[in-house]
Write a structure and sequence with these properties.
single chain; 252 residues; eight-stranded mixed sheet; 8 strands; 12 helices; alpha/beta; globular
Amino acid sequence: MRQAEFDGRGSRIRWTETEGEGPALVYVHGLGSMSAVYHAHIAAYPALAGRRQLFVDLPGHGISDRPADFGYSLEDHADALAAALDAAGAVGAELVAHSMGGAVAIVLADRRPDLVARLLLTEANLDPNPVPTASSSGIATYGEDEFVHGGGFAAVLARVGPLWAATMRLADPLGLHRTARGLVRGTEPTMRELLMKLPVERTYLVGGRDDELPGRAELVASGVRVVTIADAGHNIMFDNPAAFVREVSGRV
């Protein structure tokens, strides 16, 4: 396990990693998740043998610290992730980023282009103000005190199902709520607009079970490679790991 300070007040972002060669593969998890839980099985595939791979937990999640005086906006998370990559010496990394983590990775690539050579986004959030569901938009419908102390956290855990709840219950409720609010608020320009102008290799993976990606043609026209993964939903790395590994490795 490694760590780096990210807020100037002693809070640490932490990650585990495997030794290897080439540009680092950096896995970034979604809201209420953990990087190793969602990606360690991917890293073990023979196609990725010998690569340096980092499993980073964002502030408020997993093994990283959860300061109460942190903003947890997408920009805050991107700066914390930058602190981890700076400490790791991971210049020109390839970011494999899921859902909310994909939005963070986009912001990082915009703010610190020296750190990112490639983006592989798995059903990343691209637009602000989504329709309320059980995910980030549902969490954001609660007030902060209501979510943290008034039963909102428990209610969301009961709604999201046992798979997601297994990691979400380990997240800090305050950090989770603020992260959800930041994700719903989005960025200016939007994550979609940032993605379309980034001068790096960009791939966006869509689960084929729903295959709904608003603005797909516009993304493709901007140079984003959009790939539909068969037999997969939002968690492509679990539903079709072999296809996911092919995309991570670049052997397609």
